[in-house]
Every structure is written in C-alpha cells, then in structure tokens.
Amino acid sequence: MGDMTNSDFYTKNQSNEDNHAGGFGISLMELRALMEMRGTEAVVKIQEDYGGTEGLCQRLNTSPTEGLAGDATDLDKRKEVYGLNLIPPKKPKTFLQLVWEALQDVTLIILEIAALISLGLSFYQPPGEGSEVCGAAAAGAEDEGEAEAGWIEGAAILLSVACVVIVTAFNDWSKEKQFRGLQSRIEQEQKFQVVRGSQVIQLPVADILVGDIAQIKYGDLLPADGVLIQGNDLKIDESSLTGESDHVKKNADKDPMLLSGTHVMEGSGRMVVTAVGVNSQTGIIFTLLGAGEGEEEKKEKKVKKQDGAAAMEMQPLKSAEGGETDEKEKKKPNVSKKEKSVLQGKLTKLAVQIGKAGLVMSAITVIILVLYFAVDNFVLQERVWMTECTPIYIQYFVKFFIIGVTVLVVAVPEGLPLAVTISLAYSVKKMMKDNNLVRHLDACETMGNATAICSDKTGTLTTNRMTVVQCYVGDVHYKEIPDPGALSAKTLDTLVNSISINSAYTSKILPPDKEGGLPKQVGNKTECGLLGLILELKRDYQTIRNQIPEEKLYKVYTFNSVRKSMSTVIKLPDGSFRMYSKGASEIVLKKCSRIMSDVGEARVFRPRDRDEMVKKVIEPMACDGLRTICVAYRDFPADPEPNWEDENNILSDLTAICVVGIEDPVRPEVPDAILRCQRAGITVRMVTGDNINTARAIAIKCGIIQPGEDFLCIDGKEFNRRIRNEKGEVEQERIDKVWPKLRVLARSSPTDKHTLVKGIIDSTIGQRQVVAVTGDGTNDGPALKKADVGFAMGIAGTDVAKEASDIILTDDNFSSIVKAVMWGRNVYDSISKFLQFQLTVNVVAVIVAFTGACITQDSPLKAVQMLWVNLIMDTFASLALATEPPTESLLMRKPYGRDKALISSTMTKNILGHGIYQLVIIFTLLFAGEQIFDIDSGRHAPLHSPPSEHYTIIFNTFVMMQLFNEINARKIHGERNVFDGIFRNPIFCSIVFGTFAIQIVIVQFGGKPFSCSPLDLEKWMWCVFLGLGELVWGQVISTIPNSKLRFLRDAGRLTRKDEMPEDDQHEDQEEIDHAERELRRGQILWFRGLNRIQTQIRVVNAFRSSLYEGLEKPESRSSIHNFMTHPEFRIEDSTPNIPLIDDTDVDDEARKNLASQPTSPNKNNNAIDSGINLTTDTSKSAASSSPGSPLHSLETSL
C-alpha cells in the first residue's frame, strides 16, 4: 500500500503544476474537495465556481452529450493526472509466509521436537566402555559399526516434515493464486456503459477515467464518483457508505453527487465521472484503512469486494486442519456467510473426534512402552540406574516418544482439509468451463444437497429474445404482425411515437454480428421486442429519438416492481403535455377509460368492455405463453400544469393504443435440464412477474408441471392471502400448507420471492430443505442472500444481484444450474471416497503401531515409514480421489440432506471390511513372517540395528494394500466395477503409478533412513499379490448386503448423534443455528407435553362435537398449529407422532385420502396437505376464533 500512497502524493503535486498545462481546468485536489460536499452546497459550489455541470464538463475537456473523444494521448494524460480506476489489492502472502503457517500445525511441531531430540542424542557418545552394564539397552548397538547411522532417523523425520509443509504451502499458494485469477476475471467481467465519441460502449470498470460520461440505470453498482448531468426518477441506496437504509433521491438541481460503491435502486441518468480509484470516496476509505486487517473488515462492511468475501469463506476450510485445532476454532469468530456449509460442519466434527481418539491412542502407546521397558529392565532384571547409562535410556525413551507421535500423526487426518480444498478448488476451476463462476467456495458443495430450485422465468428458462408475435390494435386481434397499410395513419403514428419515446434510450436493436444472424438486442429485452415491432411496421425509432433527445423528456416514471409500468411525459409544441405509458396489460387496462378505434379515434372503454377484452384477447395470448403488454397515452392541458408528483391521478384516465403479445421462447435445453433435476430429487419452482396464464403455459412447456399432477399455480395476491393471518402476518404453518405443492408463483413481488424462500428454508416438514434461487434484478437481492445458494445472471443480472449471489451463471442458462448440482454432489462424493480410504488406513496403521509397540516394544512401521504412508494417504490420495470428474449417474439419486451421516453404512462396511483384511495380513506377517519367507525375525531388534527384511516386507505389503484399496475407494455406493471410468481421470492414474514407483525406490534404495532392506523379486511378487487381494476382497465385501449388518447403521450414526451435545456445546454457540438450539429445548418439552396435548385434544374434540351438532367442522386446527409453531415447540422432523394432531382434526373422508396417498419422497408432503385442502381457509367459524368462546379459552390453555 505504501507505494500507492507515494504515487498518490506524486500525482497530487504534479497535478497542481501540470494539469493546467495538461489542459484541464480543474485539479485533482479541487475535484476531491468537490466530491466531499453533499446536497445543495454541492449544487451551489458547482454553479458558482464552475458554471454548472456544463462548465464542469468544459473544464474536464469533455462533452455532456458526446463524452470523451477517446484519442489515446488524451486518455493517457487523464490516467496520469487523475489516476486509474483501480484500488490496489492487498499483497498476497509470500510462499515463505505460507510455509510458516503450515509449520504451525501442532502434530508437526511435536514431530520436529522429537526428531531434534533424537538427532541430539544420536551424536552423544556415552563415556567409557562400561556400556554392557546397561544391559539389553546397549546390546547390538555397536554391531557392524552402525552406531554412526543413529542420526538418520531424526534427519529423515525432519525431511518428511519438510515435505508435508512444502506440499501444504504449495497447495495454499496455488489456491490463493487461482483465487486471484478468479477475482480478476470477476473484475474484468464487470462492464459499464459510457459514452465515448458519441457512441455508447461497454467499458471494463477499470478503464473508466475522469471526464467519462457514464450512463447509469436501475441495478447498477456505481464504479466511480461523479456528478449527475441528467436523471429520471433516480434513487440511490447509499447504505454501503452512509449506513442510511433509506433510498436517496438524486437530481441535477438538488443533489447531483453520486458516489462509487452505491447502488442505483430506481431510474436512470447520465453522470460525468469526477473521481476514480484511490481518489473516489470508496478509494479514500480504503486508503485510510491501509492494508492488512482493516481492509478485511472493511471489505466485509463495505462494497463487499468479492475478494474479501471469498477470503472469509475460505477460512473455515483451514480451521478443519487436524484434530488439535479445535482450540483455535473456539477462538475464531464465526466467519461464514450463512451458517457453516453442511460438509464443513460434518468434517470439522469428524476431524476433531478422530484427533481426540488418536491422541488417546498415542498417549497409551507411549505409556505402555515406557512402563514395559522400565519393568523389564529395572524390576525383572533388577538393574540399577547408572548415570553413564542415562543417555542410552533417554535414547530409548525418545524412540518411544517418536513412535507415540507417529501413531498420532497417522491418526490425525490432516488430509481432510486438504481434500476439501483441492476438491473445491478443482471443481471451481472446472465449473468455470460449465459457465458457473463461483464466488463463495462452499456454495459449490451446498449445491449438491439442493432439494429445491426457485427459478426466474425470463432469461433463465427462456432465451430472453423478445419478439412481438400477436397484437390487438384498432379493434382487430392480429395473430401475426399486420401490414402497416392495414392500420390507420393516426394509430400507427401514435403507436410508433409511444414506443420510441417511452422506452429507455439505451435499448436498441443493432445489426447482427455475423451474416444471416438475428439482430442484436441491446438493453431491456422487452423494450427491444417493442422496438422490433416498429421496425416490422417499416418505421424507424431512431429518427423520433433524434427529434426528441433524452434531455427534452419532461418527466419519466421509470419501471419498478411496484408500478409494473413505465411512463414518459413530453411537452408538445403548443405547450400542452402528452404522457406515453406501457406496462403489464391487466394493470394498464385498469387505468384506461378510452381505446383507439379502427379509424384512429378514441372511443369510450367501459369496465365491461375491459372484461370482454381480457377474455377474448389477453387470456388467449397468455395461454399461448405470451407476455401481454398494453401501450397507452394521455394528453394534459398546458394550464394549469398537472401535479406530476401525484402519481395515482396522473396514471389514470388513459387511452389504450394497442395490446401486444410478446413471445419469449423456452430455451431448447431447459425441458431436459428440468427433467434431470426432477430425477435427482430436486423440485423446480418458477417464480415470475408475468401473469398466471403465461406462466402456466411456459411451465408446461418446460416440464415444471405435468398434466395430471397435483400442483398449485397461484399468483402473488392469492399466495399472500393463503399465508397471512387476519393481522397480515406471515405464519409458518400456513406457508407449510402451500409450498409443498406450489410449482408456479406468478405476478410475484420480490418480497413474495423472499417470503417463499424463507418459508421453505424454515419449514419443519420432512428434512430441512436446501434451496437454490436464481435472480437477475436488484429486487432479487434479499432472496438471493436468504437462499442457501444464490445464482445471479451474468449477462442480464444487475450488479446488485451479482453482489448478493454465490454463483454467477455466465450464460444465464438454467442447464448450467444442473451442472452446478452435479459438481456439488461430486465434491461431496469425492470427500466421502477420500474419507473411506483415509479411515481404513488410519484404523489399520494405528492398531498396528499400537499393538506392535505393546507386544514387541517397537512399532512394525517406523516413524519415517509412517510419514510416507501419511503422505500417500493424505496428500496424494486427496489429489487422486478429489479430482474425479462428475458423471451423469450422480443425478440419478436423491440429495443427501443436511442430517445424513457423513459416513454411510456402505462406507462403514467397506472401512471395517478392508481394515480386517489388512490387519489379518499384517499380523500374520508380523508374527509368522519369518517362518513363511524363511528369513531372520525382525522382532525385538536392539536400538540402531540394521533394518530387517522382515519389517520391510510388512511395510511394503502395507503400502501395496493401500494402493489397491485406493482403487476400491473410487466407489462408495457399493458398485461392483471399481475400474469404471478410471482412465478419464489422468491425475488418479499418474498418482497410483507414481506412488508405486517411489515405493520401489524407497524399498530398494531407501536403506537406513527408511529402515528398509532391499527385497528380491519373489518377495516383491508376494507383496503385490497380497495387495491385489484387496480388489478381490472388495468384491467379497460388496456381496454382503447392508441389511445383514444392523450394527453398521448405528456405527455410521454414532459419529453424529453421540458426540453432538458435548462437541457442539463448547464449540462456538453461533455455529448452531438458532432454530436448532430451540429444537433441542423443544424436543424435551415436546415429548413431555405430547401426552397432555393428546388428552386435551380429545377433550376439545368431544367438546367440539357437542358444540357443533349439525354444524360444519370448523378450522380449529390453525390455533393448535399456532401453539405448536412457537419456537419452544418446534417439532423435530423425525417425531412419528405428528399425524396424531393432524388426524384428529381431519374428517374421515380426509383420512381415507391420507391412506391412499402415495408416499414417494417427492410427494412426502401430500399426506398432510390433502387434509388441509378439504377445509377452506377463509371460513373460520365464528365460535372457533372469537376470543370469548369456551373453545378458544380451552385451546389457549393448551
């Protein structure tokens, strides 16, 4: 950051002397001072000092209409004087810093200390020759002059520690580098519209310079500071700078100051850029904060620069490092975006548990070894501790300590975080090719658990190329575009003017890029469709726009989600005003009182004409899947001038010109993608602003709804009526009645979308739903943030939506979401594969080291060998198994869900099965190996004795078994063919062969450091043969059906249920979702209260039947439900007793229904639903709801 401040200082000095020479009439410092001002004082300052915005533009040598000329020398001069639009990023960590971080791992530190002690002691020669006195301890130590080689073991441990550290550091470094690459790509993707040489062009944000004229519109994130030249109805959200949540109105004569990093929430306009990069308001804050920590927090608070958010996302990955870091974990603030991602939560817990187990094992190993040695030497052989023998004894103790640490090293799965990181980083890289730009790493894996997708219609399911295909004009409904001659001249003129003027001037149709292609639509696609209609009517919109440029527009009511229409007022030559309007047909037609007839005269348009038109014109269009837009106008007198702020009166009494039906064809690949989602157990729901008939027609084309299914298609109004109580509050159990069947939500507002997403996520029916949402508009921000995974549209999406999202779809295509699901599931599976492999090795290595050490006082696997095994199974295996490419078969199963154990019963079966095989082989070799192979026994070898063939065979066989088991680990769902698709993953093949080659080198030439003695071919063949046995044994294991192994289910679950309370309570309280905590408290209350409730319900029922003889059964269930959904009574999903409450209130007819309902996982909610739909929502009987009624008091007492 230092160099930047210098250059900054240099720019300041230079700008004061040079810039007038440079031909600019205003210096950098003056501009900075100007941008500090707000509101009216700024207006006054600009007027007085610079002669208004025109004067300001002149001093900056730019034209308010044509922008910068764009010649290179001028641009360079501007860069020199006013700086670039870049905020220098934080310096990345150097490789050495990363190495230092990797060294902080507790296990590694313990190993280093052990190795250093071992080294020190090996150089210590005991004085004198009286060493026989120390007994067995020294025997054989001097054999064959091998004592000098004592240092090798310590050195080898240090070397392998160095290996592990460098690999970890390199991984972190490449991850960081990849991330920066991704970062810069995100930044390059962000473009902004500026005017240069009177052409509107899209410019990367970094290339914007002071003096540029930028066009701003709804949904933009402002890239630089500027002064508004002209604006329509502009409202800005400045909360990122000021913390004020209210939107600030901007206009050229009251408050023209626009600041970088703020969001345009409404309207449009043009501004002249006055400060970029470090000199903009955002930049100044960055500079003040300086580099380092401040920046990180600031990034969180302010314009969430993706980098910051991403860096924060990465942290939980690191914290899973090994089991010992749980102390660190407690201190760490909770830095995840939403709750911790599913997988990370499960993995951290697992790593901690394994780590604890490993610690216990290693401690026991050391204690047993020390006691055995002491008892053997000083009690049984009754030796005395002699001072000159102390170093020798200490050497023994150090050896025991090293063995203990090795057990710990093997037990702790430090490969877990590595596997997660590699798998995620690899997936993210590959997902770029599949048009998914991942902004938050964990989103990638959450996507694999998705159970519901709420998708937009326009642009995601459809192509977003709007074309007008039908229109109703002059009392005739044309099924295709009419010939211009068929319309009266007056109607045609009004229509053409209305569309040309009353649409954003940024929307236009350009000639196609390549011969024979479709014309390019730029800007708002609906408007482009309407402009296309003008071109088809052989007229040109540009000439009209040239006659009435944007500056001459008198007032603009821009489109927003509340108005659902857009209107523009122009002043006619005679001083009167005309307003053109367009918008959703049912909304605009309600405001029309006249309509243009076939001769172009306005005639009266009564409500009953409107109803007829809706039936005859709008509904048939909508049923063809067309969006209907109504175009209208209204004339106002010059005197008195209307009150433009009184919107309701202005937007009424309109004259309809025509209604057009715009087709937005479904993307060809979408129906297939949706089918694949449904097969994968994911429900796709469409949430759109279109009218219900259009939405239903498109949903059928996409395959979201199949004829004959039991589903709901409702609009926003009906949705709100169903989910809100009398007070207008949203109630969770009302949402629970709606969402399971809801497939299409039409005419929905952004709040509806947010309510729906929140409702599905908070629902307690079945398992916790994981919801993905797509959005492109600014108003989708809240829903994208609330969802488990938010997808923003890369092309049509506004900056605000991208800011709130987790993944950006660079091609705006729904089928890319399916790819994301595939990658997400693949990540989950890769981690499971790795776990299955790693835990097998862990179990075996720990047991072997432990029992070996206890029975023979020496671990059959030496420290260095253990570290090599650790390297194979951690680093290499995580690389090999985490980079498996996804296959289509991933989409053929249901999502795992949040509460499924990480280790499935099949995996437990594999782990135990292979563990047993390996242990049998190794113990056979350990205790009978010398007879089988006819070699010297390696057991009870004295200190520093040369490596024995016996132990080398054990080590080699062990590694061979791991290698072949790695191939077994490729499949975790009990598939037979483990070689399936193995050559599609070159990394896997190269790692397996590479490991094999290194193993040969270690065994044949490793010698003393690796405690290996070379083996001949026959023994090698035996080792490989025993390894191959793994593959055969794998087939045997997969033949055993899981159902035979009841205990396995509990084994898998063990890791989840038993440790939950103790683990989670100490770990960050925040990590448990609030609802979860309520749930635990609730469960106890729930079970305790259940019996009482049942008796009370019986009382209520008896009471009711006597009360309502002959009356219809009332809907009293809502109040019972109410009491159930108070947080204390949140029901755990698995309680089988829920139906008790439902059934008691549902009439017999519904009971029959319940019984006959199919219970496929996708329809698991029908059972509850069918009961609900029988009782009408509105007819709450008076007795049940009036507070005075005896029934009510009884229920409240519940």
From TrEMBL:
Q: Which InterPro entries match?
A: ATP_Ca_trans_C, ATPase_P-typ_cation-transptr_C, ATPase_P-typ_cation-transptr_N, ATPase_P-typ_cyto_dom_N, ATPase_P-typ_P_site, ATPase_P-typ_TM_dom_sf, ATPase_P-typ_transduc_dom_A_sf, ATPase_P-type_domA
Q: Which GO terms describe its cellular component?
A: glutamatergic synapse; postsynaptic density membrane
Domain called Cation-transporting P-type ATPase N-terminal: residue spans = 49-123
Instruction: Spell out the Gene3D superfamilies in the cross-references.
Output: Calcium-transporting ATPase, cytoplasmic domain N, Calcium-transporting ATPase, cytoplasmic transduction domain A, Calcium-transporting ATPase, transmembrane domain, HAD superfamily/HAD-like
Q: Enzyme group, top EC level?
A: translocase
Asked if the Swiss-Prot or TrEMBL record annotates the protein with the keyword Lipid metabolism, the reply is: no
Q: Where is the composition biased (Low complexity)?
A: 1179-1198
Q: Name one GO biological process term.
A: regulation of cytosolic calcium ion concentration
Q: Could you list the residue ranges that cross the membrane?
A: 359-380, 400-426, 834-853, 911-929, 949-967, 987-1007
Q: What is its main location?
A: membrane
What are the entry keywords? ATP-binding, Calcium, Calcium transport, Calmodulin-binding, Cell membrane, Ion transport, Magnesium, Membrane, Metal-binding, Nucleotide-binding, Phosphoprotein, Translocase, Transmembrane, Transmembrane helix, Transport
- According to its UniProt record, which reaction does this protein catalyse? Ca(2+)(in) + ATP + H2O = Ca(2+)(out) + ADP + phosphate + H(+)
One annotated GO molecular function: PDZ domain binding
Q: How does it sit in the membrane?
A: Multi-pass membrane protein
Residue spans of biased composition, Basic and acidic residues class: 325-338
> Compositionally biased, Polar residues: which spans?
1154-1178
Q: What is its EC number?
A: 7.2.2.10
Q: Where is this region: Disordered?
A: 314-338, 1153-1198
What family is reported? Belongs to the cation transport ATPase (P-type) (TC 3.A.3) family. Type IIB subfamily.
The role this protein plays is: Catalyzes the hydrolysis of ATP coupled with the transport of calcium.
Q: What is this protein called?
A: Calcium-transporting ATPase
